[in-house]
Design brief:
Elements lengths: L20 H17 L24 E5 L36 E3 L3 E9 L2 E10 L6 E7 L7 E4 H4 L10 E2 L3 E4 L3 E4 L3 E3 L2 E8 L5 E11 L8 E9 L7 E9 L2 E11 L11 E5 L8 E2 L3 H4 L17 E2 L3 E7 L12 E7 L5 E3 L2 E7 L1 E4 L3 E4 L3 E10 L12 H4 L2
Parallel strand pairs: 6-13
Antiparallel strand pairs: 1-12, 2-12, 3-11, 4-9, 4-10, 4-12, 5-6, 5-11, 7-8, 8-9, 13-25, 14-22, 15-20, 15-21, 15-25, 16-17, 16-22, 18-19, 19-20, 23-24
Length: 402
């Protein structure tokens, strides 16, 4: 029997005999397993974004950081200030001794936190803003776009919209004592990254902050992080809240944060979340079974012993805060809830368009659902290719207050 001929892309004379098949198959399997286990893809690891699987891999990325001790992130230019806001505290020690650890942002002004030339990726943000967290607006602009891809009150962006500290132990957002906001969403960019901070308040504010990033090649299939804030009080349509709409392009939805104030007595979380993907009209492709189910809880988030709400914070989901919690009747109008759900392990992918809604649904007599008219704020997180559609106008300061 004549051997069969198999042609490789590089050598049309390459011949494999029947007896070589098992050896070749084993080689291919081992090679594929190596690629999978090493975390490799069609692109080499550049160091722009990282995970536990890639930490041991060498890369040509350059680590940089912007803070009040180095506003530009330039190499070898940190801690050089001699006239920063803490110069009096450092007067006996001088340059290099914490002369500029924070900034003062005047009322009704916008301060540029970072203006970075890429390619690269923001890898971590830490800050501790003072004042009203709903009166401070954080914005991110990618690659010189005129409209922000992220626009949100700083408290909502860091999952602390209720105005008081709540510890959050998630992969994407960590909030630590006493008011330390940390963000770990990967934020790749190709040309530029600009981050601004607007103080809407009548008082000046103090801001300590640090933005850690890498200058590195960005893989061709990397998308840009987006985050959009919305609020309805009362709801525009009774029983229904729109988290996100008019998203055009290709991408993946990765997170939901809700701040929810109930206006009716009784349980409020029977509503379903719905994801309308790629042309869905009357009915979505994905629907949940209840609000607490979507946020990875169950049975009203209730502690079976205390009969009160049970706050929790986990890597992917949490009921981070309930205000007030210590009341005899927990199903009371005026209570506020802070909830997050990160689709890190289960992103919602779309090719052309995306809309996300959630129902505000309680109970009435006779075992019937009741459409509610609650006060709901949301921050939606997703990645997509640019350009993106312009966001709806952010509510004015008076519409942001609780």
């Amino acid at each position: 029997m004549q051997p069969r001929r198999h042609f490789s892309p590089s050598d049309s004379s390459f011949i494999v005999h029947h007896s070589s098949f098992p050896l070749l198959s084993a080689f291919i399997c081992v090679h594929l397993c190596f690629l999978l286990l090493s975390g490799c893809s069609q692109y080499p690891h550049t160091g722009a974004t990282n995970s536990l699987a890639t930490l041991a891999l060498l890369a040509d990325a350059q680590s940089r950081s912007i803070c009040p001790e180095n506003f530009t992130g330039e190499k070898g230019r940190a801690a050089m200030s001699v006239d920063g806001p803490a110069k009096n505290a450092a007067r006996d020690l001088g340059q290099g001794w914490k002369v500029s650890p924070f900034v003062i942002i005047k009322p009704k002004t916008i301060f540029t936190l970072a203006d970075i030339t890429g390619p690269g990726a923001i890898q971590h943000i830490w800050m501790t803003p003072t004042g009203n967290w709903r009166h401070s607006i954080i914005r991110f602009y990618w690659d010189d776009e005129p409209n922000p891809s992220i626009e949100c009150p700083v408290g909502d962006f860091f999952s602390c919209a209720l105005g008081s500290y709540a510890q959050i132990n998630s992969l994407a957002i960590c909030v630590n004592p006493g008011s330390a906001f940390n963000c770990y969403w990967p934020m790749p960019f190709r040309k530029k990254a600009k981050v601004t901070f607007e103080n809407l308040d009548d008082k000046e504010m103090t801001l300590y902050y640090q933005i850690d990033y890498a200058l590195a090649k960005v893989p061709a299939d990397s998308a840009y992080l987006h985050a959009q804030f919305r609020r309805e009080d009362p709801l525009n349509q009774k029983g229904l809240y729109t988290i996100l709409d008019n998203i055009k392009g290709k991408g993946q939805y990765v997170g939901t944060y809700l701040a929810w104030e109930v206006h009716s007595p009784g349980w409020w979380g029977e509503g379903e979340i719905k994801f309308y993907l790629d042309g869905d009209k009357d009915f979505p492709t994905i629907a949940g079974t209840g609000t607490e189910d979507y946020f990875c809880g169950s049975y009203n988030f209730e502690n079976s012993k205390t009969k009160l709400y049970q706050p929790f914070s986990t890597p992917y989901a949490g009921l981070a805060q309930v205000l007030p919690l210590d009341i005899e009747n927990q199903y009371k109008p005026g209570q506020r809830f802070s909830l997050y759900r990160w689709h890190i392990a289960d992103p919602i992918r779309f090719d052309k368009d995306l809309k996300v809604t959630i129902q505000a649904l309680g109970w009435q007599e006779g075992g019937r659902y009741l459409q509610l008219n609650d006060d709901i704020s949301s921050t939606a997180f997703w990645y997509q290719s640019e350009p993106h559609n312009k966001f709806p106008a952010l509510p004015g300061r008076e519409k942001l207050d609780w």
